[in-house]
Amino acid sequence: MATFRKLKSGNWQARVSKDGKEFSIGTYRTKKEAEIEAGKVEERIYYGQALNDRNMLFEEVAKEWLYDYKKSNVKESTFEQLEVIVRLHILPFFNNKRIMKIRRTEIKRWINEFGEKEEGIAKYSFGSRLKYLSVLKSIFHYAVHELEVLEKNPADRLKVPVQDSVANKKETKYYSLSELNKLLEYMKAYKHQRFHDYQLYYMLMYFLSQTGLRISETLALRWSDIEDNKITIERQTRRSENNELLLTTLKNTSSYRTIGLQDELVRELKKFKLKQNELIIGSQKFHKNVDGIIFQNYSGNYLTPSIVRETIQKYCKKAGVEYKGTHGFRHTHAVLLLESGASIKFVSQRLGHKSIKTTADTYLDITEKIEEDELKKFASYTSMKF
């Protein structure tokens, strides 16, 4: 028979008996909630179901979730990201706590700490905090449904504060059409110190702005991926902990796609390929990449994202254009497509987004021109004709 006790805090503690021993199953806001949870536990005891160790530390649960469950079910790159999140952002706060003693108030405090501001800017981005909370929820879900050491998930339905998501949308950086043209004009005239006519970074920036591909997808592209005026995206690059190149699968199933290329871009790519082949044949210091990639350096190697970022940042400074990051070209492509009248569905599919909602949430409210054009269409349609 379960027993219930009202604590000084106003919460109710529930205790159940098994094999002549009484133990607590937790504290709850109301007696009714405590009775419901105690009933669930007593039912499991009645039917002989195992009640696992409720004294497990959070660290034990998190590591079992990570190494015994996640490691065999996700890509290596995803596992590495999860390991970093657990080690650096979750365990320092929860590791030595008994998992059944962790309360929603503690989790809220943990979320808020990541959102604390330094010089007016949050220590961690909204996207990072969403990811950390998602991982924590998954660990608790594992404790409830796999280990059965909890009756309910204390992080269930918790969210990162809504006002942070609004602020996050303003952080999306993209190049205006005039900024993009200014940067590309500078790069078109720029001469490489060693190979003057090998316009690697002009071609890379132009390609990114015209396709919206992720930098990891772009650096893995091969000439064989292009057929007529279409290009197929089916792999990406990443670096191991030892900075070794790895070719891996894409982010999700939607990332595997074939997109069309504008005629002007196709012509530029053909000229770039011709120059690349001329240098491979005519210069002993220019080597061919064994995989036949498009954006190789003169040593025949893959470019690394870190070197690309540093180099583009340097060129932006010389061109007098604010550096918006390599992902800025992807945002630029999406915004310019929408401003030109492309449908949100087309943009979503072209970017390889998992859902149209991702595209809409990211782009529809960051450019005034879209709203102005849509209002003009509405005004034209509804205006009275005399």
TrEMBL record:
It comes from the Bacteria. Residues 170-376 form the Tyr recombinase domain. Keywords: DNA integration, DNA recombination, DNA-binding. It holds the Pfam family Phage_int_SAM_3. One of its GO terms (biological process) is DNA integration. The keyword DNA damage does not apply. Gene3D superfamilies: 1.10.150.130, Intergrase catalytic core. The keyword Heme does not apply. PROSITE patterns: CB, TYR_RECOMBINASE. Residues 56-144 form the Core-binding (CB) domain. One of its GO terms (molecular function) is DNA binding. Transmembrane segments: none annotated. Belongs to the 'phage' integrase family. This is Site-specific integrase.
